[in-house]
Amino acid sequence: MMKKFYYILFVFCSITTLFAQKKVSVKQANSLFASKSYVKAAEAYEQIIQTKQAKQVLQNLGDCYYYNFQMTNAVRAYGQLFFTFKDSVKKEVFFRYANALKGTKDFDKGDALMSEYLGFEQNTPKFMKNVTRNTPNSFKLQIMTKNKTNGDFGISFYGDKVVFASVRNAAEKAYGWNDRPYLDLFSASVDDKGQLVKVEPFSNVINTKKHESNATFSADGKTMYFNRSGEKQVKVGDEKVAMIKIYKAEFVDGKWSNVTMLPFSSDTYSVEHPFLTKDGKKLYFASDMPGTLGSMDIFVVDVNEDGAYSQPRNLGETINTNQREQFPFLTEDGTLYFASDGHQGNGNLDVFMSLKLSDSEFDKPLNLGSTINSEMDDFNFILDEKNDKGYFASNRTGDDNLYTFIREDNKQQYLVEGEVRDMKSAELLPGATVKLYDENGNLLEEVLVGKDGSFTFNTEPNKKYKIMAFKDFYIPAEATFDTSQKGKVYIDLQMKVESYYDAEDIINKKEDGTVLIELENIYFDLDKWNIKPQAAQVLDVLVGLLKKYPYMEIQVGSHTDSRASAVYNLRLSNKRAASALEYLVQNGIDRKRLRSIGYGETKPLIICPKNDCTEAEHATNRRCTFMILK
Q1: Percentage of the chain modeled with pLDDT above 90
Q2: What domains does the chain contain, in order, with CATH numbers?
Q3: What pTM, to 2 d.p., does this model score?
Q4: Beta strands in 253-388 (DSSP E)
């Protein structure tokens, strides 16, 4: 406790002495935070001497840094918050702290916190290794500008050019969120080295003194949709927010005009990142409008021939999570690419793809792997399928930058995955262990099954494998397979394991959860512990059971009556339990699978008044029990 006290004292003294030049009140800092002036709010919180509101100060300070991608500072602030106040911190802060840790490549701590948040185990390095091997493509990347502080993102195709958003316009008013210029749209060409050249501001009809970003264009280049931030900040809860809206513009007589806000834009929620399909019939976008599952979901509207729009439709739980889904992009065949920090990934926003199943349904998203996704935000993926080239944005270097990529076929990968279920009930069995062996029986890898009951292993071509599933009180299940087929092998194994008590009549599960092998009682002579012939017959049944199930481990327990001292009975019961164990070993059972314990007179089946038991009652209390451990 004293060590913790000094650490807490050090934490707050550090905050006090580091920024002691001028005093700022918590109220002033909170006001800056509520208006999303995160840079100035962080400076203010760092100067605060008071500690009565330390919990809120540290959380807001961490959030200021987190929302501006300053993950090292975010980890520092969140770390101080969790050290002192973890038990009362809201769950959503666990999510942000976990991603901040991942953003600094501290995956051990980040996964531990994310596991607490999700309620099941996370192992990011292992997941990314597996998914990277399993993705159909890999990507070769090239940053598109030598200046890595331009804040470029929101790229889109524009004929033979590209249009993107940037803070390059340094003459514009600084934006409080990050103290950088407001975003404008720019057009550019891409040279043969993947560099942005001939960069020019987009039409001043489109660019204003507010934020403009994320343009998308019709196939003929005469219609565009883009984002613009709202004219005023609106109070939502305790915060004031300028909502992001989608606007439409038309190219008439050589210039952009007729700029109008779309009817489903609002002052009470944001709509952003529009993407218009090539046929011009659907407009996809991200929003936190009513009906959103998380902080941001992907929606779609139909664009009718008369220019009207249908009601927005949420893409549903397959695509959207309780976190952020943003930056939709669809290829001509309907494959959806988007960014998410809700689906499992490398940390923060990752790029995912989802195949189109029908006009309104998409397949389960697939992470594109670590050849494109980093531990920071990766997003705004767009693809020229015919040439296997495209662009995306990432802040992996500390600032938003654009990258060009070349898409290649991934090398042949071999994968086996499946689920572990109870044979009788077909229920998933989280907590089971699944092991992968080579054809010589050597253990290659093992995983602990998470909440979803699933497992995944990467394998190699032209080899044979065995896979086994283990769960306490269950008979292990096994399957063999080989990867001699051509191309990628996908094997879905339903590992159905049967409980011992379902398989054997003499095995029963008690109300307290213990699993006992119920055999005839073993009798010992008075004050003796040697195995009599009748006892040997009973133990032979146990030997047969243990040989039938070579992974079963048991505990032999011995009990006495109460006709001697407690110490004497405890010693006698230990000798009898050990004697039974030795009989099992002598008959071929590995000692490692066995435990013995003597209970003496402490757990009688029959409690006699005044310790006045009949001979039959004493005999009932003298017994051996056989409990399955695993």
Answers
A1: 43
A2: 2-122 (1.25.40.10), 131-409 (2.120.10.30), 414-500 (2.60.40.1120), 504-628 (3.30.1330.60)
A3: 0.64
A4: 255-261, 271-276, 282-287, 297-302, 313-314, 325-330, 336-340, 350-354, 356-358, 361-362, 366-367, 378-384
